[in-house]
Amino acid sequence: MKIKSELSKIIESALINADINAEEIVISDATKPEFGDYQYNGVMKLAKQLKKNPREIATQVLAEIDTTGMISKVEVAGPGFINIWLNNEWLSEQTIAILDDTRVGVGQVEKAQKVVVDYSGPNMAKQMHVGHLRSSIIGDTLSTLLEFLGEEVIRQNHIGDWGTQFGMLIAYLEEQNTDGNTQELKDLEQFYKDAKVRFDESEDFANKAREYVVKIQGGDEHCLTLWQSFINASLGHCEDVYKKLNVNLTREDVRAESFYNDQLPQVIETLKEKGISRVSDGAECVFLEGSDVPIIIQKGDGGYLYATTDLAALNFRDKELNADRICYVVDARQAQHFKQVFSIAKQAGMVKDEVALEHIGFGTMMGQGGKPFKTREGGTPKLVDLLEEAVVRAKDAIKDRDVRSEEELDAVAKAIGIGAVKYADLSISRESNYIFNWDKMLSFEGNTSLYMQYAYARIQSILRKHNAEVTGSIIVADEVEHRLALMLLKFEDTLTKAAIEATPHTITSYLYDVVTVFMKFYELNPILRDDIDEATRNSRLQLATLTAAVIEKGLSILGIEVVEKI
RNA sequence: GCACCUGUGGCUCAAUUGGAUAGAGCAUCAGACUUCGGAUCUGAGGGUUAGAGGUUCGAGUCCUCUCAGGUGUACCA
Q1: Can you give the residue ranges of every domain in chain A?
Q2: Which of residues 153-212 of A touch strand B (CB under 7 A)?
Q3: Which of A58, A425, A467, A530 is positioned for an S-S bond with A76, CB 3.0–4.6 A?
């Protein structure tokens, strides 16, 4: 239900009837319950343009507002706000209409955009660590969200599979293989360290490593085979993490750095031809306006840099993938890099003007005390370990709650533990740094996934207890039911906003509001108690059912599972 | 040096992009139970939005300066 755009239409025709021109009509949520459900604040701006008294204009507009359908009441307040109340019967009709809808009232976009979402992008030389967490889950949520709204999403996992360190790694892999020991790749971190030790201790090995770098680049079959098997193993590690994390990235989504290798000379050629780049100190450089430091696109020795690869990728995404919107879910510290690369790509016509290029930046994950996240030993924690710890902690938190089988406990612990890690991350506004805190994320209180999952389980418990078909209508009878029904109908507006701005926390804070209102409703309005008449009971049961559906769908967009019992 | 980002109750975060008296959760204190799952709910205290100017009907949000912290910045990605 697109409530805001429905209201915009009503206000628009009121403005037309009042003989007033307005370009864009923005409806916002009321800031307080006394001010109604929604408000239109545009009159003040219009009054300024028309040089008239805002309250006078507001009164004129007010007289033209149609209050026969969704709106029950309107008023002029303050300097010229128009406050809007929605009709309870309208809320009843709308909520009952979406009760059997698997999309809980969320429509699909009329014209699908092609959206490329570039996220995760792990480096194949190393094990995934906590630094990859945010990109992976924010990007995945964004993808799921856009897909749900009907956009055509093309996921791109731009893995780092190219560079000098691979010479060392495959040389070491070869050495290990001849010993018949292929298990070494279990721990990439260790493998890397061991290879580095060999590199430092043996001149022969170091030379071989350097030689292998050149050979891979030259297309040497033996080396490429080694390289490929290394990448396969490393990618396998990533896939384990994705599976644990409930992140939807597959091999089909992998478009590695190396994929763009043969397009790099063309990128340089194009930039040279268009006069965008020039040689400086032996390197091919682009000097952007307002900056005296160049962006190097080709080193003095002929090698390419990541800006070059990114340009090739942009070109590919525009020309081959035909993207309308390209989102890079990458650490906020790379803001400048993307600004530059986007600017060059547009100047050079590698990306059409109308294509939206967005850097979806996010802040750094911090440990306690706001310092960089480290293990007790001072290293960077591996993502697998972190996720395993989350599940163990979740299990510990719920093990005394209820008698159940070990399998059940494991499944619930997994949903809760992983959900906690993801929710904690997604519920903070993307751009700010975020402080990782186990106790907070695994709390039943406050804005946590566990609180949402708990609310869902409670509703399921009520429905199980009732154990019968629920029919009849939803009667929005009092203030709290009004708020709950309206909240449930706001789902689509919320998702739309989150998709446009790429802000998952919009969804979490909405879900938190839904659950808070539901908890109030639940305290004030008993459902199954004996003295409740059947019509009321059915109405309340249906509101509860719909609430559960919104929670379930909302969490699933965040890649978080619900459980029937906690 | 230059550029960008951040600064909101004790702590962790919001604030619909310039709207009404800046909202939540932790924590603190005070209440509610013969519990439809109390790991819940109700209420209270706690703020000069780092500071100073400015723009206007109206500023946490925009502009200028100052302070504090962070990040990036020529051949890594």
Answers
A1: 3-86, 114-125+136-160+254-325+333-358, 165-247
A2: 160, 162-163
A3: A58
